[in-house]
Amino acid sequence: MSDLFDLIIPPNPPREVMADGAMLLRGAALPYETDILTAIQTIATRSPFRHMVTPGGYVMSVAMTNCGAAGWVTDRTGYRYDALDPESGQPWPVMPASFLDLAVSAATEAGYPDFMPDACLINRYEPGARLSLHQDKNERDFANPIVSVSLGLPATFQFGGLKRNDPVRKFALRHGDVAVWGGPSRLRYHGVPKLKDGEHGTVGRMRLNLTFRGAL
Ligand code: MD3
Ligand code: FE
Hints:
Elements: H1 4-8, E1 15-19, E2 22-25, H2 33-46, E3 63-68, E4 71-75, E5 78-82, H3 97-109, E6 119-125, E7 131-134, E8 146-152, E9 155-159, E10 169-173, E11 178-181, E12 190-192, E13 207-213
Antiparallel strand pairs: 1-2, 2-11, 3-6, 4-5, 6-13, 7-12, 8-11, 8-13, 9-10, 9-12
C-alpha cells in the first residue's frame, strides 16, 4: 500500500547517486538559466573564451574562461590556479551572486553544507570538442567537492575510478543538470567524449559547463 504523499508529490527535482559522494541533481540549474547565460556574456567580455595549451603542447578543443578569486589555467609550464587572467593581466571577473547561490545550494543538498567556491571554470564545447580522461587535482584541499553545471547541448560524461585504467561508466549530462563530486569520488578520473552536433533552443550550437571549485 503506497502512502498518499507518494501519489501526489511529483518526483521533482529528481536526484541520482552516481557513486559514493557523487550526486546528480537533474534540472537544478534551470531556474538560474537566464542569469547564468547573461553573466557568462559579461564575463567573456572581460576574459574571453580561449583555447589553452597543455604542458605537452596540445591546443585544447574546449574553450575556457573563469570567474572568481582564482582561475584554472594551463600553458607550456603546467596547470595551475592563477588570480590573474594571463591574457588580460587583470583579475578574473568577480563570481556573480547567482553562481554562488546555485553552487552553495547544490553542494548543501548533496551533503556538503560548508562548501564556498573561490573559482569557477567555464568550459565551452563546440561540436567535436572533447575533454580526455583526467583527474582534477590542482586544488589545495580535496575535502571540498566540485559542483558542475551543464547547459546547452547534451554530452556523454565518462566517470571512472581512482586509477586511469579502471572501468568507466557513462552518464548523459543535459541542459540544467547539476552534479556534485565529493568525498571518495573527488579524485575519480572523468572525461567528455566528442560533443555531437546539434542546436539547443536557448544556448545554440554549443555546450557550456561551469565547475565550481575551492581552489585556494
Ligand atoms: C568528477 N569538466 O572542467 S564536469 C573539468 O563537462 C571537467 O566540462 C567536464 O572535467 C565538463 O575539469 C566534466 C563534471 C566533473 C567535474 C569535476 C569532477 C566531474 C568530476 C571532479 C572529480 C570527479
Ligand atoms: Fe575535470
